[in-house]
Amino acid sequence: MTGVLKKCCYVSVALDVPLTRLFEYRCIEASLPKIGARVIVPFGPRRLAGVVLGVASETQFDSSKIRPVVALPNDMPPLPEDVLALGRFCAEYYGHPLGQVLATALPVALRQPKVFVPPEPSGVYQATDLNALLQSLSARATAQKQLALMLAQPMARAELAAASPSASKWLKNWMEAGWVAFTETLPDVIPLPAGAAEANAEQAAAIAAIDGSHAAFAAFLLFGITGSGKTEVYLQTIAACLARGQQALVLVPEINLTPQLEARFRARFPTARIVALHSGLSDKERVLNWLSASRGEAHIVLGTRLAVFTPMPRLGMIVVDEEHDASFKQQEGLRYSARDAAVYRAHQRQVPIVLGSATPALETWHNARSGRYRLITLQHRAVGGAMPPIIEIIPMHRAKVVEGLHQATLNIMRDHLAAGQQVLVFINRRGYAPVLSCGECGWLGECKRCSAKLVLHLKERRLRCHHCGDEQMIPTACPDCGNQDIRPLGQGTQRIEAALETLFPDAKILRIDRDNTRRKGSLQEMLRQVSAGEANLLVGTQMMAKGHDFPALNLVVVLNADAGLFSVDFRGEERMYAQLLQVAGRAGRAGTQGRVLIQTGYHDHPFYGQLLAQDYAAFADAQLDERRSMQLPPFAAYALLRAEAEEGALAKAFLQQLQALLADAAGVQMFDPIAATMQRKAGMERWQLLVMSDTRHPLVNALKRIAPMLEVRNNKVRCILDVDPIEM
Ligand code: ADP
Ligand code: ZN
Ligand code: ZN
């Protein structure tokens, strides 16, 4: 026999480079990769990992110049069609190179140009006799006990190893003793679990509606206040989904993915494999969890926005909890909305999606009102007798005020503390004071690199910029006039904490904000202290507004609420309403009726009337009327081109060039470029160009024209495209 020439094939590959085009490589027919497979290819002098998007036996290029694929790692299932489709959608809609979109979809370990070797065969450990195992442990073996408790659910070795370095030794012993078993694969079908609350009538209707459309796309808005039983609806519809042998994807805001929530899911589904995907995991944990989902092993993926791209071969439903939350919109790189991407994906896969919120985004509310989404309302709190909190306004004008706290506020706080209840003082400003000022000449401490004031951090003895991170020593005298009496203006969490220490010397005060929760686990420890009643007077920022359940907390005091009323952003009031209602929801969850005090300098503002009514539907309808009459989103499609340069004139000129390119695009309107609200940030001058159209299509089409301009590397000006911006 004569030697057979190995037949060549060509693959087009999406690479993680800022270019829209694909790249061709050659490989032999015998080892042809699948569409969606990961390949390692040469790129100039480097190697890169990419995703195969096309395979052909011919090429239109000069075949002698096409370089061969370096390796086919075969270390993950090829990306399935629905993830590729979502990638193409995001690339087109957000004007971002497809290779970079797909890189975003992959965990970091699978973006590297080397083969990923999983540490062991997949499979899980689970206790077969948890009681016997626990009884065998001495009281002081806390680490072993913690590991044993994890084994109440199926757990991968990597997860257990992350919890304890001695995990493999103990697992071996426990398996020998017959208390723990290893299973290579779990069944796809998880029978309906016990432990579900009996659904009330509203919940039952919601569950029936969602289950009823399990074999087709349908988008539901599950609208209900905190405590109305939305999570219970998710759990019961997911149970039905798992019982059909399907997987469920649950997206939550980063800050809500608490151990409490995860524990609630694990407690409900003790035999299911639940994996988390969020930025708090190590790269290794993330890739293992991702692989577990994409191999179809994990039944439930509980993740933050990045999890929307997770391949799930048996995906049966998607939940987006707190769908209005701003963290679903990525604010760098691929500026996608994970909520919108999730809706696209559900449509692609023909599965139902449930968007849950007490304060839906107006975009979502509009979709529900116009019938594109099905509106399901939970009117009442799920636990019998629990009532929504009473909201009261404390007008601040001509008031007796101590350190930003009204005398009436202080009196009510004192009563609650005396009655043994917890009180939360909510102020969305960390640091000691938002600015340092000179009473003589009016000097204000400002960041040299940003158009922003420097925040006083007294404990660290620093002035710190919250936008670029710059720090300075606290000056001992005014830099302009030499006056030594320079003073902090306004209040931040640290100053309120200090004031409360004087005002309530007997209270156990705990401050919770980003400054004192940076260390891993410190937030969890503080939340534990709150739950255990080791603190009764809490000072917190928006970190405290979300997700956590504190049964003894029944008074919330909101300081400095007014900021959203005069925002340049048309979403100011929408955000403020959502935030205030959310923080109000912290008050009085168990049995007692909560009370919320809002200190304001503008008690006559119609906004507060709408807030006191606690009728988000009415508020949202009124806002939509306003948006409609002013042609604002969701009644118009917006894209922002944001340019920055050391010299503002360059940024502006660049945007003017783009404006000229778009001038005759059909159906598109523009204003002239304007300076950004925060004109200087980290030493760069920032300008923006707003591009609008009545519907999305003309806008997306027009923006394609300028993509080449954004691709060209321009050293002086950095310009990015933000489609559906949520911050103006
Ligand atoms: P949400 O997600 O809307 O804040 P949850 O689902 O967390 O509401 O429900 C609030 C509380 O009420 C939880 O403690 C939950 O266990 C309980 N709960 C929910 N539904 C029911 C029900 N049908 N019967 C009894 N308790 C319920
Ligand atoms: Zn001065
Ligand atoms: Zn700064």
Question: Brief overview, please?
Answer:
With 728 residues, the protein is an alpha/beta fold. The strands form 8 sheets. A 7-stranded parallel beta sheet has the order 9-10-8-11-12-7-13, with helices on both faces.
Blueprint (SSEs and pairs):
Elements: E1 8-15, E2 23-28, E3 38-43, E4 46-56, H1 81-93, H2 98-105, E5 124-127, H3 130-136, H4 142-150, H5 157-163, H6 167-176, E6 180-183, H7 201-212, E7 218-224, H8 230-243, E8 247-251, H9 259-268, E9 274-277, H10 283-294, E10 300-303, E11 315-321, H11 338-349, E12 352-357, H12 362-369, E13 374-378, E14 390-395, E15 401-402, E16 405-406, H13 407-418, E17 422-426, E18 435-438, E19 455-457, E20 462-464, E21 471-473, E22 486-489, H14 493-503, E23 509-512, H15 522-531, E24 537-540, E25 553-558, H16 572-584, E26 595-600, H17 606-613, H18 616-629, E27 637-645, H19 648-662, E28 668-670, E29 674-681, E30 684-693, H20 696-711, E31 717-723
Parallel strand pairs: 7-12, 7-13, 8-10, 8-11, 9-10, 11-12, 14-26, 17-24, 17-25, 23-24, 25-26
Antiparallel strand pairs: 1-2, 1-4, 3-4, 5-6, 15-16, 18-22, 19-20, 20-21, 27-30, 27-31, 28-30, 29-30
The protein binds adenosine-5'-diphosphate and zinc ion (2 copies).
One zinc ion (ZN) is lined by residues 438, 440-441, 443, 478, 480-481, 483.
